[in-house]
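Q: Hi! First time asking for a complex rather than a single chain. Here are the components, and I think there are two in total. Is that enough to go on?
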Amino acid sequence: MYKYVAIIEKSQIIKEGLTYLLKSHNVCEQIAKLESIDDWHFAFKDEKPELIIINPDRLKDNDLDKVKSKFEISDKTQIIGLIYQYFGREVYAMFNNIIYITDPENVILNKIRNKQKKEQDTGEKLTDREKDVLKLLLKGMSNKEVADKLVISPHTVITHRKNIIEKTGIRSLSGLAVYAILNNITDMDEINELQ
Amino acid sequence: MYEINTNISGNSRLTNLIIEYPNLLSVLEYFNISLGLGDKTVAEIALEYNIAPNTFEVVIQVYCKETPSKVLSQEEIPDLLRFLQASHNHFKDSKIPELKGLIELFSKEIPTRKGKVLVAFFDEYIKEVDAHFLYEDEKVFPYINNVLCNRREKNFKIREFERNHTDIEQKLRELKKILIRDIPPSVVSKYRKQILINLINLAQDLTYHTQIEDNILVPFVKNMETNIKN
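A: Yes, that's all I need. Here is the structure of the assembled complex.
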Protein backbone atom coordinates (compact mmCIF):
# COMPACT_ATOMS: atom_id res chain seq x y z
CA MET A 1 0.00 0.00 0.00
CA TYR A 2 1.26 3.46 -0.86
CA LYS A 3 1.20 6.13 1.79
CA TYR A 4 0.90 9.10 -0.47
CA VAL A 5 -0.18 9.30 -4.10
CA ALA A 6 -0.43 12.37 -6.33
CA ILE A 7 -2.78 12.62 -9.29
CA ILE A 8 -1.96 15.42 -11.69
CA GLU A 9 -4.74 15.83 -14.24
CA LYS A 10 -6.99 18.60 -15.46
CA SER A 11 -10.30 16.79 -15.88
CA GLN A 12 -12.29 16.78 -12.67
CA ILE A 13 -14.21 13.66 -13.70
CA ILE A 14 -11.09 11.62 -14.36
CA LYS A 15 -9.36 12.86 -11.25
CA GLU A 16 -12.30 11.95 -9.05
CA GLY A 17 -12.85 8.63 -10.82
CA LEU A 18 -9.27 7.56 -10.29
CA THR A 19 -9.38 8.72 -6.68
CA TYR A 20 -12.47 6.65 -6.06
CA LEU A 21 -10.82 3.58 -7.60
CA LEU A 22 -7.66 3.90 -5.52
CA LYS A 23 -9.54 4.57 -2.30
CA SER A 24 -12.04 1.76 -2.68
CA HIS A 25 -9.25 -0.77 -3.23
CA ASN A 26 -7.04 0.42 -0.41
CA VAL A 27 -4.20 1.22 -2.75
CA CYS A 28 -3.09 4.21 -0.72
CA GLU A 29 -3.68 6.15 2.45
CA GLN A 30 -3.67 9.66 1.09
CA ILE A 31 -4.26 11.21 -2.30
CA ALA A 32 -3.33 14.69 -3.45
CA LYS A 33 -5.16 15.97 -6.51
CA LEU A 34 -3.35 18.63 -8.50
CA GLU A 35 -4.44 20.45 -11.58
CA SER A 36 -0.98 21.46 -12.61
CA ILE A 37 2.58 20.51 -11.78
CA ASP A 38 3.09 24.12 -10.67
CA ASP A 39 0.97 23.44 -7.60
CA TRP A 40 3.65 21.00 -6.45
CA HIS A 41 5.35 23.13 -3.81
CA PHE A 42 2.02 24.25 -2.56
CA ALA A 43 0.79 20.67 -2.09
CA PHE A 44 3.87 18.91 -0.78
CA LYS A 45 6.06 20.26 1.92
CA ASP A 46 7.58 17.61 4.17
CA GLU A 47 6.08 14.46 2.81
CA LYS A 48 6.53 13.64 -0.85
CA PRO A 49 4.32 11.19 -2.76
CA GLU A 50 5.71 7.73 -3.63
CA LEU A 51 3.55 7.45 -6.71
CA ILE A 52 2.61 10.12 -9.22
CA ILE A 53 -0.06 9.56 -11.81
CA ILE A 54 0.17 12.32 -14.36
CA ASN A 55 -1.34 13.23 -17.70
CA PRO A 56 1.63 14.13 -19.94
CA ASP A 57 -0.18 17.25 -21.12
CA ARG A 58 0.48 18.63 -17.63
CA LEU A 59 4.21 18.62 -18.34
CA LYS A 60 5.81 21.55 -20.04
CA ASP A 61 7.71 20.58 -23.20
CA ASN A 62 7.18 16.91 -22.32
CA ASP A 63 10.27 17.07 -20.18
CA LEU A 64 9.88 14.86 -17.17
CA ASP A 65 13.54 15.09 -16.16
CA LYS A 66 13.32 18.85 -15.87
CA VAL A 67 10.29 18.54 -13.64
CA LYS A 68 11.99 15.89 -11.54
CA SER A 69 15.01 18.03 -10.84
CA LYS A 70 13.01 21.21 -10.35
CA PHE A 71 10.75 19.66 -7.75
CA GLU A 72 13.37 17.32 -6.29
CA ILE A 73 11.48 14.15 -7.13
CA SER A 74 13.68 11.15 -6.40
CA ASP A 75 14.24 8.33 -8.86
CA LYS A 76 12.53 5.96 -6.46
CA THR A 77 9.22 7.69 -7.04
CA GLN A 78 7.00 5.72 -9.40
CA ILE A 79 5.59 7.84 -12.19
CA ILE A 80 2.70 6.53 -14.25
CA GLY A 81 1.40 8.30 -17.34
CA LEU A 82 -2.35 8.74 -17.69
CA ILE A 83 -3.23 8.69 -21.36
CA TYR A 84 -6.32 9.56 -23.33
CA GLN A 85 -5.01 11.58 -26.19
CA TYR A 86 -2.30 11.16 -28.81
CA PHE A 87 1.29 11.32 -27.67
CA GLY A 88 4.48 10.31 -29.43
CA ARG A 89 6.32 7.17 -28.38
CA GLU A 90 9.07 9.13 -26.70
CA VAL A 91 6.51 10.40 -24.23
CA TYR A 92 5.48 6.88 -23.22
CA ALA A 93 9.09 5.98 -22.61
CA MET A 94 9.42 8.59 -19.86
CA PHE A 95 7.12 6.73 -17.49
CA ASN A 96 7.40 3.60 -15.36
CA ASN A 97 4.05 2.51 -16.70
CA ILE A 98 1.06 3.80 -18.64
CA ILE A 99 -2.62 3.81 -17.70
CA TYR A 100 -5.09 4.28 -20.53
CA ILE A 101 -8.48 5.57 -19.51
CA THR A 102 -10.00 2.72 -21.51
CA ASP A 103 -8.28 0.19 -19.20
CA PRO A 104 -10.67 -1.88 -17.10
CA GLU A 105 -10.50 -1.60 -13.33
CA ASN A 106 -8.37 -4.68 -12.66
CA VAL A 107 -5.81 -3.71 -15.28
CA ILE A 108 -5.40 -0.25 -13.76
CA LEU A 109 -5.01 -1.71 -10.29
CA ASN A 110 -2.49 -4.26 -11.53
CA LYS A 111 -0.41 -1.61 -13.20
CA ILE A 112 -0.30 0.37 -10.00
CA ARG A 113 0.35 -2.62 -7.76
CA ASN A 114 2.92 -4.31 -10.01
CA LYS A 115 5.19 -1.40 -9.57
CA GLN A 116 4.85 -1.69 -5.85
CA LYS A 117 6.06 -5.26 -5.96
CA LYS A 118 8.95 -4.88 -8.31
CA GLU A 119 12.23 -4.76 -6.49
CA GLN A 120 15.39 -3.99 -8.34
CA ASP A 121 18.48 -4.10 -6.27
CA THR A 122 20.82 -1.17 -6.67
CA GLY A 123 23.82 -3.48 -7.05
CA GLU A 124 25.90 -1.47 -4.61
CA LYS A 125 28.28 -3.22 -2.23
CA LEU A 126 27.38 -3.36 1.45
CA THR A 127 29.39 -1.04 3.67
CA ASP A 128 31.34 -2.50 6.60
CA ARG A 129 28.76 -1.15 9.01
CA GLU A 130 25.93 -2.78 7.08
CA LYS A 131 27.85 -6.06 7.13
CA ASP A 132 28.18 -5.78 10.92
CA VAL A 133 24.45 -5.20 11.27
CA LEU A 134 23.65 -8.10 8.96
CA LYS A 135 25.92 -10.47 10.88
CA LEU A 136 24.23 -9.66 14.18
CA LEU A 137 20.75 -9.92 12.72
CA LEU A 138 21.59 -13.36 11.39
CA LYS A 139 22.69 -14.39 14.87
CA GLY A 140 19.05 -13.91 15.79
CA MET A 141 19.32 -10.53 17.48
CA SER A 142 16.49 -8.01 17.46
CA ASN A 143 16.89 -4.45 16.17
CA LYS A 144 17.18 -3.27 19.75
CA GLU A 145 19.88 -5.79 20.62
CA VAL A 146 21.86 -4.92 17.51
CA ALA A 147 21.58 -1.23 18.40
CA ASP A 148 22.87 -1.83 21.94
CA LYS A 149 25.74 -3.97 20.74
CA LEU A 150 26.92 -1.47 18.14
CA VAL A 151 26.08 1.54 20.30
CA ILE A 152 23.79 3.11 17.72
CA SER A 153 20.08 3.95 17.83
CA PRO A 154 17.45 1.36 16.84
CA HIS A 155 16.36 3.83 14.20
CA THR A 156 19.79 3.64 12.60
CA VAL A 157 19.58 -0.16 12.62
CA ILE A 158 16.30 0.06 10.74
CA THR A 159 17.89 2.38 8.18
CA HIS A 160 20.76 -0.07 7.73
CA ARG A 161 18.27 -2.91 7.26
CA LYS A 162 16.45 -0.93 4.62
CA ASN A 163 19.70 -0.26 2.79
CA ILE A 164 20.72 -3.91 2.97
CA ILE A 165 17.42 -4.93 1.38
CA GLU A 166 17.74 -2.29 -1.31
CA LYS A 167 21.28 -3.20 -2.16
CA THR A 168 20.84 -6.97 -2.22
CA GLY A 169 17.25 -7.22 -3.43
CA ILE A 170 16.71 -9.81 -0.68
CA ARG A 171 14.12 -9.22 1.99
CA SER A 172 13.84 -12.41 4.05
CA LEU A 173 16.31 -13.21 6.80
CA SER A 174 16.80 -16.74 5.47
CA GLY A 175 17.59 -15.32 2.04
CA LEU A 176 20.03 -12.88 3.56
CA ALA A 177 21.69 -15.78 5.38
CA VAL A 178 22.38 -17.45 2.03
CA TYR A 179 23.65 -14.15 0.66
CA ALA A 180 25.94 -13.53 3.63
CA ILE A 181 27.48 -16.98 3.54
CA LEU A 182 28.04 -17.07 -0.20
CA ASN A 183 29.61 -13.63 -0.09
CA ASN A 184 31.80 -14.53 2.90
CA ILE A 185 30.22 -11.97 5.19
CA THR A 186 29.55 -14.50 7.91
CA ASP A 187 30.22 -18.14 8.81
CA MET A 188 27.84 -21.05 8.88
CA ASP A 189 28.29 -21.41 12.65
CA GLU A 190 27.32 -17.80 13.20
CA ILE A 191 23.83 -18.24 11.87
CA ASN A 192 21.05 -18.77 14.32
CA GLU A 193 18.59 -20.50 12.02
CA LEU A 194 20.97 -23.31 11.17
CA GLN A 195 21.69 -24.27 14.76
CA MET B 1 -21.77 -6.07 -17.98
CA TYR B 2 -19.33 -5.04 -20.63
CA GLU B 3 -17.38 -7.20 -23.00
CA ILE B 4 -13.97 -6.30 -24.26
CA ASN B 5 -12.64 -7.41 -27.59
CA THR B 6 -9.67 -9.65 -27.15
CA ASN B 7 -7.60 -11.70 -29.51
CA ILE B 8 -8.35 -14.86 -27.61
CA SER B 9 -11.83 -16.28 -27.51
CA GLY B 10 -13.66 -19.59 -27.52
CA ASN B 11 -12.92 -19.81 -31.22
CA SER B 12 -9.14 -19.71 -30.86
CA ARG B 13 -7.35 -22.94 -31.61
CA LEU B 14 -5.67 -24.25 -28.51
CA THR B 15 -2.62 -25.68 -30.29
CA ASN B 16 -1.69 -22.26 -31.65
CA LEU B 17 -2.18 -20.61 -28.28
CA ILE B 18 0.10 -23.09 -26.50
CA ILE B 19 2.86 -22.54 -29.03
CA GLU B 20 2.69 -18.84 -28.33
CA TYR B 21 2.09 -19.10 -24.56
CA PRO B 22 3.82 -22.24 -23.27
CA ASN B 23 2.63 -21.61 -19.71
CA LEU B 24 -0.75 -22.84 -20.91
CA LEU B 25 0.67 -26.36 -20.55
CA SER B 26 0.06 -25.95 -16.82
CA VAL B 27 -3.58 -25.10 -17.48
CA LEU B 28 -3.97 -28.37 -19.38
CA GLU B 29 -2.34 -30.21 -16.50
CA TYR B 30 -4.64 -28.70 -13.89
CA PHE B 31 -7.76 -29.39 -15.94
CA ASN B 32 -6.46 -32.87 -16.75
CA ILE B 33 -6.50 -32.29 -20.51
CA SER B 34 -4.30 -34.51 -22.67
CA LEU B 35 -2.18 -33.29 -25.54
CA GLY B 36 -2.96 -34.41 -29.06
CA LEU B 37 -5.39 -31.54 -29.32
CA GLY B 38 -5.82 -31.61 -33.10
CA ASP B 39 -7.43 -28.48 -34.43
CA LYS B 40 -9.90 -28.12 -31.62
CA THR B 41 -10.87 -24.70 -30.37
CA VAL B 42 -10.95 -23.51 -26.78
CA ALA B 43 -14.73 -23.92 -26.68
CA GLU B 44 -14.59 -27.44 -28.14
CA ILE B 45 -12.05 -28.60 -25.58
CA ALA B 46 -14.15 -27.10 -22.77
CA LEU B 47 -17.15 -29.07 -24.01
CA GLU B 48 -15.16 -32.29 -24.37
CA TYR B 49 -13.75 -32.07 -20.85
CA ASN B 50 -16.93 -30.84 -19.26
CA ILE B 51 -15.58 -27.46 -18.18
CA ALA B 52 -17.78 -24.36 -18.12
CA PRO B 53 -16.75 -22.68 -21.42
CA ASN B 54 -16.48 -19.17 -19.98
CA THR B 55 -14.39 -20.38 -17.07
CA PHE B 56 -11.98 -22.13 -19.40
CA GLU B 57 -11.83 -19.08 -21.63
CA VAL B 58 -11.00 -16.57 -18.89
CA VAL B 59 -8.35 -18.83 -17.36
CA ILE B 60 -6.71 -19.13 -20.76
CA GLN B 61 -6.90 -15.38 -21.25
CA VAL B 62 -5.10 -14.76 -17.96
CA TYR B 63 -2.39 -17.25 -18.92
CA CYS B 64 -2.03 -15.42 -22.25
CA LYS B 65 -1.61 -12.07 -20.46
CA GLU B 66 -4.96 -10.82 -21.71
CA THR B 67 -7.73 -9.16 -19.78
CA PRO B 68 -10.60 -11.58 -19.16
CA SER B 69 -13.39 -10.76 -21.57
CA LYS B 70 -16.23 -12.26 -19.53
CA VAL B 71 -17.59 -11.90 -16.05
CA LEU B 72 -18.27 -15.34 -14.62
CA SER B 73 -21.66 -16.30 -13.26
CA GLN B 74 -22.45 -18.25 -10.12
CA GLU B 75 -22.67 -21.54 -12.04
CA GLU B 76 -19.27 -21.00 -13.59
CA ILE B 77 -17.32 -20.42 -10.37
CA PRO B 78 -17.15 -24.06 -9.14
CA ASP B 79 -15.00 -24.99 -12.15
CA LEU B 80 -12.73 -22.08 -11.35
CA LEU B 81 -12.38 -23.33 -7.78
CA ARG B 82 -11.66 -26.81 -9.10
CA PHE B 83 -8.92 -25.33 -11.25
CA LEU B 84 -7.36 -23.40 -8.38
CA GLN B 85 -7.50 -26.39 -6.06
CA ALA B 86 -5.89 -28.62 -8.68
CA SER B 87 -3.12 -26.09 -9.15
CA HIS B 88 -2.48 -26.06 -5.41
CA ASN B 89 -2.10 -29.82 -5.49
CA HIS B 90 0.28 -29.70 -8.42
CA PHE B 91 2.38 -27.03 -6.74
CA LYS B 92 2.49 -28.89 -3.44
CA ASP B 93 2.85 -32.45 -4.68
CA SER B 94 4.95 -32.12 -7.78
CA LYS B 95 6.42 -28.76 -8.81
CA ILE B 96 7.83 -27.71 -5.45
CA PRO B 97 9.15 -31.15 -4.40
CA GLU B 98 10.82 -31.42 -7.81
CA LEU B 99 12.60 -28.13 -7.20
CA LYS B 100 13.56 -29.22 -3.72
CA GLY B 101 15.13 -32.39 -5.13
CA LEU B 102 17.16 -30.38 -7.63
CA ILE B 103 18.28 -27.93 -4.96
CA GLU B 104 19.46 -30.80 -2.77
CA LEU B 105 21.47 -32.26 -5.62
CA PHE B 106 22.89 -28.84 -6.43
CA SER B 107 23.76 -28.03 -2.82
CA LYS B 108 26.05 -31.05 -2.70
CA GLU B 109 28.12 -29.53 -5.48
CA ILE B 110 28.74 -26.31 -3.58
CA PRO B 111 31.98 -26.70 -1.57
CA THR B 112 32.46 -26.41 2.19
CA ARG B 113 28.90 -27.27 3.20
CA LYS B 114 27.74 -23.84 2.07
CA GLY B 115 24.99 -25.46 0.05
CA LYS B 116 23.28 -26.32 3.31
CA VAL B 117 21.96 -22.76 3.67
CA LEU B 118 20.36 -22.99 0.27
CA VAL B 119 18.42 -26.08 1.33
CA ALA B 120 17.45 -24.43 4.63
CA PHE B 121 16.23 -21.39 2.71
CA PHE B 122 14.06 -23.47 0.41
CA ASP B 123 12.69 -25.49 3.33
CA GLU B 124 11.51 -22.26 4.85
CA TYR B 125 9.86 -21.34 1.58
CA ILE B 126 8.05 -24.68 1.52
CA LYS B 127 6.67 -24.01 5.00
CA GLU B 128 5.46 -20.61 3.89
CA VAL B 129 3.77 -21.98 0.78
CA ASP B 130 2.15 -24.83 2.68
CA ALA B 131 0.64 -22.40 5.18
CA HIS B 132 -0.55 -20.17 2.34
CA PHE B 133 -2.30 -23.00 0.50
CA LEU B 134 -3.67 -24.56 3.67
CA TYR B 135 -5.39 -21.31 4.57
CA GLU B 136 -6.99 -21.14 1.14
CA ASP B 137 -7.96 -24.82 1.01
CA GLU B 138 -9.38 -25.00 4.51
CA LYS B 139 -10.74 -21.54 5.07
CA VAL B 140 -11.23 -19.53 1.90
CA PHE B 141 -12.50 -22.11 -0.58
CA PRO B 142 -15.02 -23.70 1.83
CA TYR B 143 -16.24 -20.20 2.62
CA ILE B 144 -16.73 -19.48 -1.08
CA ASN B 145 -18.60 -22.76 -1.48
CA ASN B 146 -20.93 -21.59 1.26
CA VAL B 147 -21.41 -18.26 -0.42
CA LEU B 148 -22.22 -20.07 -3.66
CA CYS B 149 -25.02 -21.88 -1.82
CA ASN B 150 -26.22 -18.51 -0.52
CA ARG B 151 -25.11 -19.39 2.97
CA ARG B 152 -23.62 -16.69 5.08
CA GLU B 153 -20.74 -17.11 7.45
CA LYS B 154 -20.58 -14.76 10.38
CA ASN B 155 -16.92 -14.60 11.15
CA PHE B 156 -15.38 -14.35 7.74
CA LYS B 157 -15.49 -12.01 4.78
CA ILE B 158 -13.50 -12.21 1.57
CA ARG B 159 -11.93 -8.89 2.52
CA GLU B 160 -10.01 -10.73 5.18
CA PHE B 161 -8.52 -13.04 2.55
CA GLU B 162 -7.68 -10.04 0.41
CA ARG B 163 -5.77 -8.54 3.29
CA ASN B 164 -3.99 -11.77 4.20
CA HIS B 165 -3.15 -12.77 0.66
CA THR B 166 0.61 -13.00 1.09
CA ASP B 167 3.17 -12.76 -1.63
CA ILE B 168 4.55 -16.25 -2.18
CA GLU B 169 6.76 -15.20 -5.06
CA GLN B 170 9.10 -13.04 -3.02
CA LYS B 171 11.42 -15.86 -1.94
CA LEU B 172 11.46 -17.27 -5.47
CA ARG B 173 12.66 -13.91 -6.75
CA GLU B 174 15.36 -13.96 -4.08
CA LEU B 175 16.43 -17.46 -5.00
CA LYS B 176 16.68 -16.51 -8.67
CA LYS B 177 18.95 -13.66 -7.70
CA ILE B 178 21.13 -15.86 -5.53
CA LEU B 179 21.52 -18.45 -8.29
CA ILE B 180 22.35 -15.90 -10.95
CA ARG B 181 24.40 -13.47 -8.92
CA ASP B 182 25.82 -14.90 -5.72
CA ILE B 183 26.87 -18.48 -6.28
CA PRO B 184 30.37 -18.11 -7.74
CA PRO B 185 31.28 -19.24 -11.27
CA SER B 186 33.63 -21.83 -9.75
CA VAL B 187 30.57 -23.90 -8.87
CA VAL B 188 30.04 -25.80 -12.08
CA SER B 189 26.87 -27.82 -12.09
CA LYS B 190 24.20 -28.71 -14.59
CA TYR B 191 21.63 -28.23 -11.87
CA ARG B 192 21.98 -24.48 -11.55
CA LYS B 193 20.38 -23.77 -14.92
CA GLN B 194 17.82 -26.49 -14.46
CA ILE B 195 16.73 -25.01 -11.13
CA LEU B 196 16.52 -21.57 -12.71
CA ILE B 197 14.31 -22.77 -15.53
CA ASN B 198 11.99 -24.54 -13.10
CA LEU B 199 11.94 -21.47 -10.87
CA ILE B 200 11.06 -19.12 -13.70
CA ASN B 201 8.20 -21.37 -14.79
CA LEU B 202 6.90 -21.81 -11.26
CA ALA B 203 7.03 -18.08 -10.52
CA GLN B 204 5.13 -17.27 -13.73
CA ASP B 205 2.56 -19.91 -12.95
CA LEU B 206 2.07 -18.51 -9.44
CA THR B 207 1.66 -15.01 -10.85
CA TYR B 208 -1.21 -16.12 -13.09
CA HIS B 209 -2.68 -18.16 -10.27
CA THR B 210 -2.70 -15.13 -7.97
CA GLN B 211 -4.15 -12.94 -10.70
CA ILE B 212 -7.06 -15.34 -11.09
CA GLU B 213 -7.69 -15.29 -7.35
CA ASP B 214 -7.36 -11.53 -6.95
CA ASN B 215 -8.99 -10.30 -10.15
CA ILE B 216 -11.68 -12.88 -10.86
CA LEU B 217 -12.51 -14.81 -7.72
CA VAL B 218 -12.37 -12.05 -5.10
CA PRO B 219 -14.49 -9.51 -7.03
CA PHE B 220 -17.05 -12.23 -7.70
CA VAL B 221 -17.31 -13.19 -4.03
CA LYS B 222 -17.50 -9.55 -2.94
CA ASN B 223 -20.39 -9.07 -5.26
CA MET B 224 -22.14 -12.18 -3.93
CA GLU B 225 -21.61 -11.05 -0.35
CA THR B 226 -23.48 -7.83 -0.92
CA ASN B 227 -26.33 -9.75 -2.53
CA ILE B 228 -26.85 -12.37 0.18
CA LYS B 229 -29.54 -11.25 2.54
CA ASN B 230 -29.18 -11.74 6.23
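A: Chain A touches chain B at residues 104, 106-107, 110, 117, 119, 121, 168-172, 174-175, 177-179, 181-183, 188, 191, 193-194 (CB under 8 Å). Let me know if you'd like any chain examined more closely.
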